[in-house]
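User: Batch of two.

Assistant: Item 1 of 2:
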Amino acid sequence: MKKLFIATTCLFSFMGAQAQLKTTKLCPPVVVDILDGKVNQLYSSSTAGEIKSQLPCFTSAEDNGCGGIFYKDNDIYFYTERDYVEIREKFKGKLSLPLLGASRSGLFKLLGHPKLKDVNWDAFQMAYGTLVLYYNKAGKVNKLQFSVKSSEAMNLCE
């Protein structure tokens, strides 16, 4: 009887040792360097694994033709299959250049002349590749995308 009691006590003790506390994954502050084309130390050509390890608090990940790692609560999206990063107007991180909400007419002093122009967007040639700025009806930047690829080679998702 004594052996059964000791065996049962040991069994329950070992079961308790298996339980572990699980922590919530916290992301470091997100800092986007527009002139260098990177988010923290990640580039638009970074792999999904690299992005997940440096920014572990992603809200979803997809592996389809427009797949990527998405941070919907922070309004930043890494399209890993197409090698570009998209930042939308509710972005909560820090931009090295205050582009979101900036007036289209005031961008020349920050970025120079765009390489390509459209009614709703401008594409700028950067040292790392391409920066595309999208404008709302008031002519303010409401979305930006950047890639290590040239404007001719970029393949964006709709």
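Item 2 of 2:
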Amino acid sequence: MRGAGLCLVLACWATHPLRGQDLDSAAVRVPLDSALRLADRAAASAFPDRSGYQLYSIVPRALKGDPGGLHWQVRWQEKTFPHRRWLLVRVYMNDGHATTERLTH
């Protein structure tokens, strides 16, 4: 009986429409193509070993408590297995400021 209830809850949840976040075009002063070039330059200067990484993703983000607000998050994944190292560059949409970070997961 408990399993049937769980299945019913999951079925109802799965049919609920997902809502994405829309970006206001007025808030985006740095478009995606410019952000990718800025991120590439920032990663090249911050990470001399970037040739050992491959571009993985670029997504719009807004981190809670981040005073910079909306940004493009660009991630490079280590080419060698087990792919646990990442290079992360955030390019802020309002002014093009870039921050870099190396992650190990």
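The mean pLDDT is 86.
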